[in-house]
Amino acid sequence: MAMTKNAMLVEQAIKRRGGVAELTKSMGIAMDGFSEGLFDSAQRSDVPAKIIRAREPFAHALSLINDHITVRQEEIEAASAAYEDIARRLVDKLDWPISAISIHPQGSASTKTLIRMPDRTKFDIDAVCEVDITKLQAQDPMTFFGAIGEALDGLEVEPKKRCWKINFSGKPFYIECTPSVPLETIPVSQQEASRLKAAEPEFANTALAVVDTPQKKWKTSNPAGIRNWVERVSARNIVANLVLEEFTKSARANIQPVSPQSVEVEETLRVAIRLFKRHRDMRVYRQEIDKDFQPISIILVTLVTICYDGLADLIEEGVLQPFSHPVDALVAIADLLPEMIVDYPGTGYQLANPTVVGENFAERWNDDDGERAQTFDVWCGLLRADLERISALTDPKEIEAETREVFGCHAGSGPAGSGGSGGSGPYISIPRPPKPAPSTPGLA
Which of 134, 115, 112 is nearest to 124 (CA)? Predict the structure, then answer.
């Protein structure tokens, strides 16, 4: 059977990393626990329990972080209410039928990877305002974009490249609302004028056209396709079934779901995305990587999902053994991450949008004098170093303390219900970053 594209990408990344033996060696957590004949022993049934006990301190610490960075359900519900208000405004001011308007989450909120900001500034909940209008009405993208903006008059709005940013006083979030129409409703002449890219066949039924205001043209987008892709890949299992069953029985009772945005440690793909995003945010917050060149969320989501999907393929094909524990899988993904995007001779950095033909998410990496690629490498090095330091510890209290420090979740006393876990855990107190040193003329 031919190897899938993602399996080949991961296999190449593993080779660049030094091979399977080196993949997680530096972090002190081996990924080959199931390849050493453990299940040939008479104590086969006890092996999963042993693995769980060995990984429990790490799983517990990461569960705490994952829980704390979760956005509370009441905030999600408040955003949903705001969606309804936006829809009503469009109906009232533009005379569009309510049945033609669909406002729904995109990005992190739709993939269940939405997290809190380290400094408790407002977080953004991306939304798509999908309008099922006629081909005639869809002919002028700028008129369509402007009509949405006029309908939002009375709210605190700001035009962005492809969306309207809507701030809500007294709320912990703002909404970036992207006007869109189904891709198929754009006339052929306009598709040609805008040079619209086609959707990948698997995701054609969710493809949209959004307005690229700097270019005054339509641009293909597919947020629901990304959501469906992440959902499909996350359903795959890269952890040995016996261990996962044992882990679920022993650990789930100690991990309390706090909202529909909540995910558990055994949901390896989403947890990896959430923790890596939090680590990136902390490194920006602590001024260790440049905010302007940080790896954006769609880059992280795409790289991690491709990596996870490729690992699942290699495991199914028998090239790799299943991981011994969800924590092992998470660490291995972190170890492979910097090897998952390559600067190809002649074309530069390429990271394909899995839902849109020919779209390169890493396009900006090729016109910034290497700043984004360098920042990504620096951040990946920091992530590796932090996980290596945590995995070298053996005392559960030290593991928890170091994990909290790395991810900026310090336990302390605070107002009830103010924690990122919706009130089920300790208050998160994050030290303010040091003030930057004054610039010195002549020094870089």
Answer: 115
Asked if 392 and 376 count as a contact pair (C-beta separation under 8 A), the reply is no
| CB neighbour class for 130 (10 Å; exposed up to 12, middle 13-18, buried from 19) | buried
Euclidean distance between CA atoms 18 and 264, whole angstroms:
31
- Please provide the distance, in angstroms rounded to a whole number, between the alpha carbons at the two ends of the chain: 53
pLDDT tens per residue across all 444 residues of the chain: 678 999 999 999 999 988 877 765 654 554 444 333 333 334 445 567 777 788 888 888 998 998 888 888 788 778 778 888 888 888 888 888 888 888 888 888 788 888 888 876 777 888 888 888 765 566 689 999 999 999 998 899 999 999 999 998 888 888 888 999 999 888 888 888 888 999 999 999 999 999 999 999 999 999 999 999 999 999 999 988 655 565 555 544 333 322 344 456 568 999 999 999 999 999 999 999 999 999 999 999 999 999 999 999 999 999 988 888 888 889 999 999 999 998 999 999 999 999 999 999 999 999 999 999 999 999 999 999 999 899 889 899 999 999 999 999 976 523 223 233 333 333 333 343 443 433 322 222
Cα–Cα–Cα angle for 337, 342, 346, nearest 5°? 170
Q: Identify the bridge partners of residue 179 per DSSP, sorted by sequence position.
A: 129
* Residue 149: count of CB within 10 angstroms of its CB: 14
What are the tokens at 115? 């997290």
Please give the distance of CA 155 from its chain centroid, rounded to a whole number.
29
Task: Answer whether 75's CB lies under 8 Å from 261's CB.
Answer: no
What's the CA gap between 115 and 279, in Å, rounded? Answer: 11
One domain for residues 197 and 289: no
| Domain count along the chain | 2
Q: Compute the distance between CA of residue 42 and CA of residue 40 in angstroms, rounded to an integer.
A: 7
Q: Report the CATH number at residue 159.
A: 3.30.460.10
> Is residue 309 located within the same domain as residue 331?
yes
CB atoms within 10 A of CB 174: 19
Separation CA 109–CA 201 (nearest Å): 24
Per-residue CA distances from 239 to 277, 316, 323 (Å): 22, 11, 5
Task: For residue 38, give the nearest of 348, 296, 322 by alpha carbon.
Answer: 322
What is the dihedral sign for C-alpha 381, 384, 387, 393? negative
Bridge-partner residues for 127, per DSSP?
Answer: 105, 177
Domain range spanning residue 152? 78-222
Residue 83 parent element (H or E): helix 73-94
Q: Which residues pair with 208 in a beta bridge?
A: 182, 221
